[in-house]
Design a protein that fits this description.
Elements: H1 5-13, E1 18-22, H2 26-34, E2 39-42, H3 46-49, H4 61-73, E3 79-83, H5 93-105, E4 110-114, H6 120-128, E5 133-138, H7 144-147, H8 157-172, E6 177-181, H9 185-194, E7 199-202, E8 210-213, H10 215-218, H11 240-252
Parallel strand pairs: 1-2, 1-8, 2-3, 3-4, 4-5, 5-6, 6-7, 7-8
Bound molecules: 3-methyl-2-oxobutanoic acid (KIV).
Length: 263
């Protein structure tokens, strides 16, 4: 049986951590599913790791639909979340609905959108019309030019309070899950305790309800300077399946992320 949003919610209620990885094609999707991953994120990080771009801003709706179809074909059991790309949802809830329908028709079970207060109406519009939404706050790569760089968010008291408020508003608007990226571990823990929906952290410490990493980062494929929150699981594994199994175990047992991966 396919994992659903209510399965993931039950995992949170039973204190079981949720292990998520990004995925962009059918072959990896099958390996990840067979390794015990709970959910796959067809992330717009494909702009970086597949297309070689320095940002996610040029990823198109057609790209996301294509990769969602590929991932969906490679799976029977996992829950699939797909990023709505830059420009496909920000202008209005109606635009977001029209484009989210295409992503869901391609095989996703939930769409992910970046942004806080400003996205509350859109989250409500989509969820009231039957489209599950994962919100995403903290470092939101589609706002990179506004944020001025890939850096830690929520480190001042004011910005921490803003993120706490945003998390609450997004949950109230109907978000079924929340990705929190690159914020202090203590703040992520506080947000997680306040909400009743799962929080999925990346660079947000190990007291979130689950964790996500970009597949290419956790397989040690990404070149250049590695952000602190990444762990290369291939270093201690002979096969990709073993590396992913170790990631799933490390997330579920709370061994990843550890103190050296957090802020
Ligand atoms: O696109 C992506 O891979 C993401 C994760 C980093 C959360 O949004």
């Amino acid at each position: 049986m396919r994992t659903s949003l209510s399965t993931l919610q039950k995992m949170l209620d039973n204190n079981e951590k949720i292990a998520v990885l990004t995925c962009y094609d059918a072959t990896f999707a099958r390996i990840l599913e067979n390794s015990g991953i709970d959910a796959l994120l067809v992330g717009d990080s494909l702009g970086n790791v597949l297309q070689g771009e320095s940002t996610t801003l040029s990823v198109t709706l057609d790209d996301m639909i294509y990769h969602t179809r590929c991932v969906a074909r490679g799976t029977d059991k996992v829950f699939i979340i797909t990023d709505m790309p830059f420009g496909s949802y920000q202008a209005s809830p109606e635009l977001a609905f029209k484009n989210a329908c295409k992503i869901i028709a391609a095989g996703a079970h939930m769409v992910k959108i970046e942004g806080g207060h400003i996205m509350a109406d859109t989250v409500q519009f989509l969820t009231r019309r039957g489209i599950p939404v994962c919100a995403h706050i903290g470092l939101t790569p589609q706002s990179i030019h506004q944020l001025g760089g890939y850096r830690l968010q929520g480190h001042s008291e004011k910005s921490a309070r803003l993120l706490e408020d945003e998390a609450k508003i997004l949950e109230k608007s109907g978000a079924g899950m929340l990705v929190i990226e690159l914020i202090p571990a203590k703040l992520a823990e506080k947000i997680t305790q306040t909400l009743s929906i799962p929080t999925i952290g990346i660079g947000a410490g190990n007291n979130c309800s689950g964790q996500v990493l970009v597949l290419h980062d956790m397989l040690g494929l990404s070149q250049g300077k590695k952000p602190r929150f990444i762990k290369d699981f291939m270093l201690e594994a002979k096969t990709i399946q073993a590396a992913v199994e170790n990631y799933v175990i490390a997330v579920k047992t709370g061994q990843f992320p550890n103190i050296e991966h957090q802020f």
